[in-house]
Structure formats: C-alpha cells, structure tokens
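Researcher: Go.
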Amino acid sequence: MISRPENELTKNSEATSASVVPKNTLFIVRTTAGQENNVALLIETRSKINKIPIYSILALPNLKGYVIMETRGLHSVYEAIKGLKHIKGKVSGTLRWEDLESMIKPKPLIELLFVGADVEIVAGPFRGMKAKITSIDKTRNEVSLSILEANYPLTITVPVDYIRLAKGEK
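Model: Structure:
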C-alpha cells in the first residue's frame, strides 16, 4: 500500500469549505386552512421566476394551515411569501428534521388500535360489518373482533389489514 502524505493546505481548504456551506433549514409558514396546496404552488412559481433558493416545499395533509419550506436562510422565505395571498403570518419558526420525519412516516395501523375501539371490516367474508376490538396480538399482527351486527355474540380473529378505524375513533 502506498500512502500519500496529507499536506496542511488540503486539510485547511476542506475544513473551511465545509464550514462555509450552511445547512439547509426547514421553515414553517402559516397559511389559510385548506389553501396549503395553492400557497405551495404560488411559492414554487415565484421561486422559479425570481430564482429564490428554495429546495423543497411541503404541504402535508395532516398539518392543516401550515406550509414547510426548505431553504438556507430566513431571507429566502420572506422573499418568497412577500405579498402572497392566503399567508396568515410571518414565519412561525423552524422545524427539526426528526420532527418532519415523524410527520411523514406513517404509523402502522396496529399501533393506533386499542381494545374497545370501533372498527369496520374492509376485507374478507365479513366485509362492511362493524365490530369492536376485544384483543390485539401484535406479534401475529391480528386482532380479535366482536361483530356488533350479529344476533348472537360472534368473535372472529382477522389480520390487521382487514380492518380500519371507524370514523370518529383516533
């Protein structure tokens, strides 16, 4: 093996170039609820026309009234939202990458279920029936249900993929 001696010039230039480049930051902008997609499209158009360095724009369905933008600085955000319709306020703050990941990454259905929850069966021979969860087996990914629409107590065990939470349960 031949090893090259590292000179001080390359070490210093690499260190300074890494420290000069700032990290991208996620900023949150408050918008009118229901207008998140429109605001995101307006910001995208404005950033392309004016060459504003915005790297990504997120309008998440589970985050009503907010748009998330990835950019290097706050000045880019203000330049992008200046005078736009449906902007409720200035930048609400920054967001950590870990928090964004938890919003984007879907939770498994079995983690949302609990004993006593009302569910609807969406597959199998009992499709369309309402039921109540009596037990949960996370290792086998199955739930035991008591059918509510039966004339007598009927308990069945189905995979978690066969059910969904009834409206109003969460």
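Model: Strands lie at 25-31, 54-58, 66-71, 87-95, 118-121, 130-137, 142-147, 155-159, 163-165.
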